[in-house]
Design a protein that fits this description.
alpha/beta; 5-stranded parallel sheet; 18% strand; binds 1,3,4-trihydroxy-5-OXO-cyclohexanecarboxylic acid; amino-acid biosynthesis
Length: 143
């Protein structure tokens, strides 16, 4: 089985961006963590990042054919994107939402996510470990 792991805008800056909130790990570090966790769980891993909402929508649409589950950190688009919500709903695949930070502890505009309503579950506040937990959850759902 194959899992598509999507990362939204500005996550390419991890490791340099607001380290006190997001930690020192780079996106490449998180990708390595995900590849190891997927291998352990017996899942093939497709790991991507985009700063563009439409590109994320295109990737979610193609996941209809190419993935069995979607793990997504939609970043700022969590709080704004009906398009990503609709694409995830149309994909008809199990979705696990991840955030590095605890969005509920932060500004009010981060408390609502359009993605949560189409996710099986949400993991937030555990940093990069959240991706590992999401992969374990996806593996459980798929097995
Ligand atoms: C984030 C939280 C979002 O509110 C923010 O816009 C991000 C990252 C997280 O992983 O904690 O870019 O999704």
């Amino acid at each position: 089985k194959r899992v598509l792991i999507l990362n939204g805008p500005n996550l390419n800056l991890l490791g340099t961006r607001e380290k006190s909130i997001y930690g020192a790990d780079t996106l490449a570090d998180i990708e390595a963590l995900c590849r190891a966790a997927c291998e352990k769980a017996g899942l093939a891993c497709d790991f991507r990042q985009s700063n563009h909402e439409g590109e994320l929508v295109d990737w979610i649409q193609s996941a209809r054919r190419t993935a069995d589950a979607i793990i997504i950190n939609p970043a700022a688009y969590s709080h704004t994107s009906v398009a990503i919500h609709d694409a995830l709903r149309a994909a008809e695949k199990p979705v696990v939402e991840v955030h590095l930070s605890n969005i509920h502890q932060r500004e009010a505009f981060r408390h609502h996510s359009y993605v949560s309503a189409v996710a099986v579950g949400v993991i937030c506040g555990f940093g990069p470990k959240g991706y590992t937990l999401a992969i374990e959850a996806a593996a459980d759902i798929l097995n």
